[in-house]
């Protein structure tokens, strides 16, 4: 069942998906896709895992969807992006709080999703799920974004290895 077909998931996050401010992240590039699509993927897979483990899947879906809710300018430099890696969970939390009322768990999912890159340790099982799913999804997205470069790296590594095993 896809995200769109899952009516339970859609019902849980409907108000967020209909929120005008949240929809601004549709136009922001994130790991080669939109920040909106990235967030939706993280939310949906996290919700599925939380449900399977009989955890708070509603909060997981909402916290997962809001984990990267920050509006960044289009003309960000590489330095800005680097700094953002460390500070965006805090900004996302502020943005989410301005637009929605969050539970303690949802706040924690957003705050700690970049652990261990930032030192906010996830306090709940649901936060660990969002943080882990985010890393898996990001790895897949970045792999696709840089697939051509990865091919060159792979070839260079293989040539290097073969130069020793002749
Ligand atoms: Fe993030
Ligand atoms: Fe993310």
Write the SSE topology.
Elements: H1 7-17, H2 20-23, E1 29-30, E2 33-34, H3 35-52, H4 57-66, H5 78-99, H6 104-112, H7 125-145, H8 147-162
Antiparallel strand pairs: 1-2
Helix pairs in contact: 1-4, 3-4, 3-7, 4-6, 4-7, 5-6, 6-7
The protein binds fe (ii) ion (2 copies).
Return the domain count.
1
Instruction: Determine the number of helices (DSSP H or I, runs of at least 4 residues).
Output: 8
Major beta sheet, specifics? Answer: 2 strands, antiparallel
CATH architecture: Orthogonal Bundle
Structure report:
With 166 residues, the chain is mainly alpha-helical. It has one domain (7-162): Hypothetical protein af1432, CATH 1.10.3210.10. It is 67% helix and 2% strand. A two-stranded antiparallel sheet has the order 1-2. A hairpin with a 2-residue loop joins strand 1 (29-30) and strand 2. One fe (ii) ion is lined by residues 67-68, 88, 113-114.
């Amino acid at each position: 069942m896809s995200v769109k077909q899952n009516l339970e998931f859609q019902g849980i996050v409907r108000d967020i998906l209909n929120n005008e401010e949240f929809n601004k992240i549709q136009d922001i590039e994130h790991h080669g896709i939109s920040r909106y699509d990235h967030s939706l993927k993280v939310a949906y897979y996290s919700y599925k895992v939380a449900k399977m483990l009989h955890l708070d899947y509603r909060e997981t879906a909402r916290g997962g969807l809001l984990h990267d809710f920050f509006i960044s300018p289009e003309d960000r430099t590489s330095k800005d992006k680097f700094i953002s890696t460390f500070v965006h969970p805090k900004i996302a939390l502020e943005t989410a709080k301005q637009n929605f009322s969050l539970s303690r768990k949802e706040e924690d999912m957003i705050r700690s999703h970049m652990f261990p890159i930032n030192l906010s340790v996830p306090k709940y099982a649901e936060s660990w799920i969002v943080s882990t799913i985010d890393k898996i999804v990001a790895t897949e997205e970045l792999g696709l974004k840089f697939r051509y470069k990865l091919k060159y790296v792979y070839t260079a590594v293989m040539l290097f290895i073969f130069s020793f095993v002749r």
